[in-house]
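Cont'd.
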Amino acid sequence: MTPRKRVETMEENRARLITAARRAFAEKGYANASMDDLTAAAGLTRGALYHSFGDKRGLLAAVVNQIDEEMAARAQAIGDRIDDEWEALMAVGAAYIELALEPEIQRIVLLDGPAFLGDPLQWPSQNSCLQSTQTSVRRMVAQGVMAPVDPEAAARLMNGAALNAALWVAASDDPQAVLQRAIDAFRLLSRGLLARPG
Amino acid sequence: MTPRKRVETMEENRARLITAARRAFAEKGYANASMDDLTAAAGLTRGALYHSFGDKRGLLAAVVNQIDEEMAARAQAIGDRIDDEWEALMAVGAAYIELALEPEIQRIVLLDGPAFLGDPLQWPSQNSCLQSTQTSVRRMVAQGVMAPVDPEAAARLMNGAALNAALWVAASDDPQAVLQRAIDAFRLLSRGLLARPG
DNA sequence: CAACCCACATACGATTCGTATGCGAAAGGA
DNA sequence: TCCTTTCGCATACGAATCGTATGTGGGTTG
């Protein structure tokens, strides 16, 4: 059975709504984005939106999901290029801080996401970044590279530190300079998790 | 000159509105809290609210301010009881994680605050917790206890780690057990900032 | 070809916010 | 003492927005 044309256009409209929502949420924030304007910009009406996403939160969830997957892919690509696993983790952390500099990610994923969807780890997307960090930590603990630390806790704290660093950098007057300070502090802090931090 | 009675009652009404707002924001979240219900619960109307706080965001700012000061006082009290400054900082970090377990603090200060008011460090209250952490770090760097790290960056990252740990703990099924794991990981992580972490 | 289904549009009611205006009580001067 | 002004707050109004309930047209199925 070949997919019907109706289905194809529906997927298309879903994608167009998500794209329009990314723009609107990033610019005005979730709370101040009008769904009438949003859907009109996509050439549709609220009818399509409620049919595809249930409600406004459903649309936000879909948007966060999409961005989250993109973030995971980009971070993964950076980590894969480095052989030493610890250095790879540090690079991913730095990359994560830089990622959060993008207004879209900051506004939607870091601010509105937790506020309106709740704890990121319980999102369907499972916050992919955190997930990969956790498995990486688990491996290094097994290898004795890292001290015997709870992998989930370590991943949580490192991500939290990076996240907050990103908010700090983004709000500063001189992002480039502050970015370097943040990354340096991140490396120093992470050192504590090594088996032989000296 | 004695204060006029009108002023006294006005301060009283301000306080009553803030108290009602704390309850409403904590229970329903900032976005879903109705100002009509809010003010009615305080025995007033929206007129008083707009007169005292300008708009809804102004009320949120006042609420966040009040809670933030309470948090700083409680953390300070814990840190003051410990002589060794490093151990005091660790204790404050742990206390901060525990503080964030309270739904009121979590919902209002950690989720809605950043989402609707922007970066915490630029709030009028200046996020007192972070401020004291920063000065503490500065002293220890000068004493050679801590490695030569940027005090602002270190304070930012430590607070971020603690904040995220708290969100994690609060969302978990067994908060007490997870709390211990979070605090242990926090201490291990922070070790990296010491001059001699071995 | 007729009945049906589905994706989406339209119409409507219910909240909620911000502002503009009204009112009563206290303060101050003649 | 009386009149006027000020101030804190209530009331009234308009605008915006969300969710639901209903309508509709093109494609599908029997």
